[in-house]
Amino acid sequence: MLQLYFSPMACSLASRIALMEAGLDARYHQVHLWTKKLADDDSDFRSLSPKGAVPVLVLDNGERLTESAAVLQYIADVNPERGLAPPPGNADRYRLQEWLSFIGTEIHKAFLFPTFWYKDDGSLAKPRARIQQTLSVPAAHLTGREFLVGNSFTVADAHLTWAMLLLRPAGVDIAQWPSLSAYLERMQARPAVREAIATEMALRKTVAA
Fold first, then answer.
1. Which whole-number Å values give the CA distances from 145 to 83, 179, 180, 182, in the listed order?
2. Quick count: other Cβ atoms within 10 Å of Cβ 30?
3. Per-residue pLDDT tens for 15-57?
4. Sorting pLDDT into bands at 50, 70 and 90, what band is 113?
5. How would you class 110 by CB atoms within 10 Å of its CB: exposed for 0-12, middle for 13-18, buried for 19 or more?
6. Could you tell me the domains of the chain?
7. How far apart are alpha carbons 134 and 152 in whole angstroms?
8. If we measure between CA atoms, which residue out of 3, 160, 162, 190 comes closest to residue 82?
């Protein structure tokens, strides 16, 4: 059985969404990212992944995958019948990789990561100024479109849904982009997405308590 190492509402939420959309059973192991400890037994998460970051997906053969783009692509390919990624040879497969890269670098690492991890001593001014231009890209793309790639939900949508959820607590109101607001509402209406978010929000409240 697949095993996902995650932290509540971190980018690993996209992997949980993908697993549920793919109809795949998995064991979930919670990680405390500040201390790099596993919630199960307080062991050192870095002994499992020297990067100290989630997601980590342990495959059935014991091998480990890290980085959201790789993990999401793998999950999609485990159960291709669900259509979470275009098949090899399809031009849209490269569009999927394009969006996974864009979300991971331009929204996650360029804005969300420093916003939540660094002290705002003035160093966040440039990321905050740039995020407006960054978000205009998916906003324009999603005008008149239901999904990021093709005509059905893919793992790129799982990734962007997570990012959109964190923008508001990061100080960005996506209401200024009607296409993004409508998109997030559609994604949250999906049963698997709704369940995944509810599960991790409940866990986050437990950690905060």
1. 17, 9, 11, 10
2. 20
3. 999 999 999 999 999 999 999 999 999 999 999 999 999 999 9
4. confident
5. middle
6. 2-83 (3.40.30.10), 91-191 (1.20.1050.10)
7. 23
8. 190
